[in-house]
Design a protein that fits this description.
Helices cover about 65% and strands about 0% of the residues.
Length: about 150
C-alpha cells in the first residue's frame, strides 16, 4: 500500500501491480487460492480485498500471540559471542510478533506469561496454545493446566 500511495496507482490496477511484484512461490499460492474460490477465479482477476484477506490469513505474524510471547520470554538468553548490540537487535526483532501494544491488563499478561513459561509440560502448553489470546487469562490458564494434568493421571 506504501508503493500504491507513492505512485498514485488507480484502484483498478493495485491487484495487478501487487501480483507482478511477487515471488514465484507467493504467486503460486495466490493462484492456488483463487482456483479454490467459489466460483473459481483466475489469479489475475482477484480483487485487492481478496488478496489482502488471503495474505493476512497466510502471513499475519500475530495469529498465535500466546505462543509468540512464550517463545519470546522463555528463550531469552544471550548467545555465546553475541555482542550487546546484537542481543538488543535480536530482542527488538523477536518482539515484533508479540503484539505487546495490544496488552489491556499488564498484570494479568505478566502472570499468564510467567506461568506458561514455568509450566514445563508439553500437553499443558499445547492445550494453552489452542486458546485465543483474548480469551486466555491467568486464571483460565491455571484452570486448563490443572485439568490437563489431572486428565493425564
Amino acid at each position: 500500500m506504501t508503493f500504491v500511495g507513492a505512485h498514485t496507482l488507480p484502484e483498478s490496477k493495485i491487484a495487478q501491480v501487487f501480483l507482478t511484484n511477487q515471488s514465484n512461490v507467493t504467486y503460486k499460492l495466490l493462484s492456488s487460492y483463487s482456483s479454490q474460490l467459489t466460483p473459481p477465479t483466475e489469479v489475475n482477476k482477484l480483487t485487492t480485498e481478496k488478496i489482502v484477506e488471503y495474505m493476512k490469513s497466510q502471513f499475519d505474524p500475530t495469529r498465535y500471540i500466546v505462543r509468540e510471547r512464550y517463545k519470546y520470554w522463555s528463550d531469552l538468553q544471550r548467545k555465546p559471542g553475541e555482542t550487546i548490540q546484537e542481543l538488543g537487535a535480536r530482542i527488538r526483532q523477536d518482539a515484533v510478533t508479540c503484539d505487546f501494544a495490544s496488552i489491556k491488563d499488564p498484570l494479568d499478561e505478566a502472570l499468564r506469561t510467567r506461568f506458561i513459561c514455568a509450566v514445563k509440560n508439553e500437553a499443558v502448553l499445547k492445550a494453552l496454545f489452542r486458546v485465543k489470546d483474548e480469551e486466555l487469562t491467568f486464571a483460565k490458564a491455571m484452570g486448563i493446566a490443572m485439568e490437563t494434568e489431572d486428565a493425564a493421571r
